[in-house]
Design a protein that fits this description.
Layout (H helix, E strand, L loop, with lengths): L1 H9 L1 E2 L2 E2 L1 E13 L4 E12 L4 E9 L2 H14 L2 E2 L11 E5 L2 E7 L6 E2 L2 H10 L4 E7 L3 H13 L4 H8 L3 H6 L1
Parallel strand pairs: 9-10
Antiparallel strand pairs: 1-2, 3-4, 4-5, 5-6, 7-8, 8-10
């Protein structure tokens, strides 16, 4: 019981509980002259479902320890993303390594149209309607990083108006 309470306390930031999604656990092997050394690596996505999402990568000799390390790194790596009426404000394309990600806004009722790894990122961030396409590499590390890079490049109208020091009406009129 004490462990659960302690872990639950770490999964709450600013009164909002973090949702954790395990993407994958992989057994890796290091071969030396004398023997093989086995260890585990894990990827975890954490998010508030209200515009904050992060990922973590952990390695350890035991799988639960790797998952715990990845969860801690994901909590420390949280970043704010732009959620506009349950979707994104504009289309965005991003690339990390060999992975390319294209995300588009969607109308109400569409849902999350995305593959497994991208779906986990968008659900953790709190998107309700979004279209996405992953091209190139299907490496989970690179897909997550490309998706988060695309989400961090998004800007809403208020941010653009503030950066240009003009009114919101002028942003729309061009």
């Amino acid at each position: 019981m004490k462990i659960e309470k302690k872990r639950k306390g770490k999964n709450i930031i600013g009164g909002i509980e973090l949702k954790e999604k395990l993407i994958g656990v992989t057994r890796v092997c290091k071969v030396t002259k004398g023997r093989r050394y086995f260890s585990f690596s894990a990827i975890v996505i954490k998010g508030t479902k209200k515009g904050m999402v992060g990922y973590g990568f952990g390695k350890s000799k035991e799988a639960p320890d790797a998952i715990h390390k990845a969860g801690e790194k994901a909590r420390k790596n949280l970043r704010k993303v732009c959620v506009f009426k349950g979707t994104i404000p504009h289309e965005q394309e991003s690339r990390y390594g060999g992975a390319k990600v294209l995300i588009k806004p969607a109308s109400d009722g569409t849902g999350i149209i995305a593959g497994g790894i991208l779906r986990a990122v968008f659900e953790a961030a709190g998107f309700k309607n979004i279209l996405s396409k992953s091209k190139g590499s299907s490496n989970p590390h690179n897909l997550i990083k490309a998706a988060l890079k695309a989400l961090s490049c998004l800007r809403d109208v208020q941010t653009i108006a503030k950066q240009r020091d003009i009114s919101i009406q002028k942003v729309y009129s061009g």
